Amino acid sequence: MEELTAEALAQRFAHLDCEVPLLSAGSERVASVLIPLLTAEPCCPVVFTRRADRMRRHAGEISLPGGLLEPADDGSVISAALREAQEELGLPPAAVQVQLVLPHCRNSHGLVIYPVVGIVTRPLQWLLQAEEVAEVIEVPLGHFLRAEHYRLERRTYDGEEKQSLVLDCGVEQIWGLTARIMNNLRLLLNPKD
């Protein structure tokens, strides 16, 4: 892939055909996550959160900011992703230029998740929601665009052994749904892989 500049990514995103859903009341349980890209910075970091250790589910895991749609979102997965990023990271919606919504995927509990890709302007300071977020982790986008960084691994989760996609990022590991979302983005940006 060419150099990861804001212009190059915007051109690539412009050629992708991804439908933006508007969900009606009574839709199945739906969530959305934001894939925040700091395209103005060297290596175009992707912003992730490490979930707080006291979280009931997925404690300590690396994830994308996001959560369930709420009535205030009016069925918009984009609104939900922006709201959640503001709640978890203190990222103002005005600091995000939404590029596209990736096709939905399901987690192991059947929840439907829509990933929203956004070009983000870094705030002066991340304002973390301490109950949910322990820290911000930034990983260069180029790391996710290389197929050799992904592997399948058997893991025990919720008392069951499952096969999961794993992505090693230095001393950190991103796995499960978050790894699948980033792999889906890789496949959209590099369709020949």
From TrEMBL:
PANTHER family recorded: MITOCHONDRIAL COENZYME A DIPHOSPHATASE NUDT8, NUDIX HYDROLASE
Pfam family, one: NUDIX
Gene Ontology molecular functions: coenzyme A diphosphatase activity; metal ion binding
Residues covered by the Nudix hydrolase domain: 28-161
Alphabetized InterPro entries for the sequence: CoAse, NUDIX_hydrolase-like_dom_sf, NUDIX_hydrolase_dom
Domain of life: Bacteria
PROSITE patterns: NUDIX (PS51462)
Keywords: Hydrolase, Magnesium, Manganese, Metal-binding
Cofactor(s) needed: Mg(2+); Mn(2+)
Name assigned to this protein: DNA mismatch repair protein MutT
